[in-house]
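quick one, 259 residues, struct below
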Amino acid sequence: MALMHIQTTGRGPDLVLIHGWAMHSGIFAPLVAALAARYTLHLVDLPGHGASCDYAPGALDPAACAHAIAAATPPAAWLGWSLGGLVALRGALDRPGHVRALVAIAASPRFVVGADWPHGVGAETFRAFADGLGTSYHATIERFLALETLGSPEAQSELRALRQQVFARGEPDAAVLCDGLAILDTTDLRAELATLTVPSLWIAGRRDRLIPAGAMRWAAEHAPGGHYLELAAGHAPFLSHAEAVADAVDAFLGTEAAA
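---
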């Protein structure tokens, strides 16, 4: 697969940051500002996003992405938001010697509801977005951004931040966006969660309308060594609560390093 663009900044222990659907690593700017004095940050642009403009079908597969990120970064803790959380979890499951700890922000092992899984959104939501990309690209992106900020106490400022970032490094190709939605629609890592061998922190937004807090609470309870934190936030807690997220990450990684 094509090489991913990974920017490195900061100093200290290594921490990989992986963004969500339609975004790029620039969305983490508030978190980077809070963490760069404490960690060497490796900011990933997933295939077809941001500066990783080359894209081939299948390149966004979480296992393939995790393999490529591991090949390009030193052993580190991995932090993933939303779709990036699936990539980070896949990496932690497949490469526990390389991924030393997992921080999942507004991400869970399964994103869509099912007969035995109430903690998600309806599959028709992702399929409607996929259909919309072919007919009204910008309007579809706008609807998804609005869903990400819905319920947040800082909804308007978060929506402005997401709007500013989403096309700041060019427009993602419709093919990669459709592939990302398909991954969110079909991935189910619940059965594998019990095999996770690295410590994990699951940070949920209490008002998140995309990934209910209950999904992340369940994940923390079923992952060996799992920890759970709930903030009064929407789907992007690192925008509205950057310092609280940074402090939680620091406390979690510091505790695990001392263990």
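The chain has a mean pLDDT of 92.
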